[in-house]
């Protein structure tokens, strides 16, 4: 039976090494893309970040060409957001407060919906509906900014519901 390796990811979310125990020579203290420090453990509970699957020699493993390791958004041990997820949520909430075409009440509603877009909850469908409604009022440019900020931290089903992709 195989196992999952540990991933090394920078604080901004760039995957440096998705198999840092199997290929330690690929580890880096700092990210070559942005210069941020890299981590292998959750900063909240110190559990290792789940990396890519390492099959046992006896495992019959289906290799899917083009399949990539997807960095986790939340720790599987404590449930807290990783730093890269926290920063994207923070940026989206700040962006919501900057949209000129929305009232203060609408800005607050949009900002409050971000958490439910990122972590699928019973309120996610409400958040999707609210987001789409407010993006019509906010305009195409604002919607594009949100897409750029959120695309990497929302699930595929939420992404399809928001942008059809």
Short recap of the structure:
With 165 residues, this protein is of the alpha+beta class.
Describe the protein's architecture and organization.
It is a single chain. The protein has a three-stranded antiparallel sheet, with no helix packed on it. A hairpin with a 4-residue loop joins β2 (8-10) and β3 (15-17). The chain has helices at 83-98, 104-118, 124-138, 140-150, 156-163; strands spanning 3-6, 8-10, 15-17, 38-39, 50-54. 39% of the residues lie in helices and 10% in strands. It is elongated and about 55 Å long. The protein has five helices and five strands, in the order βββββααααα. α1 (83-98) runs antiparallel to α2 and α1 packs antiparallel against α4.
Looking at this protein, list some descriptive labels.
165 residues, single chain, alpha+beta, three-stranded antiparallel β-sheet
Layout of strands and helices, then pairs:
Elements lengths: L2 E4 L1 E3 L4 E3 L20 E2 L10 E5 L28 H16 L5 H15 L5 H15 L1 H11 L5 H8 L2
Count the beta strands. 5
Query: Which sheet architecture does the biggest sheet show?
Result: 3 strands, antiparallel
CA(first)-CA(last) distance: 35 Å
Strand order, main sheet: write it out.
Answer: 3-2-4
Overall pLDDT confidence: 92
3D shape: elongated
Number of helices: 5
Reading the helices and strands in chain order gives EEEEEHHHHH
Strand content: 5-15%
Instruction: Kindly name the structural category.
Output: alpha+beta
Radius of gyration: 18 Å
Low-confidence parts: none
The helix content is 25-40%
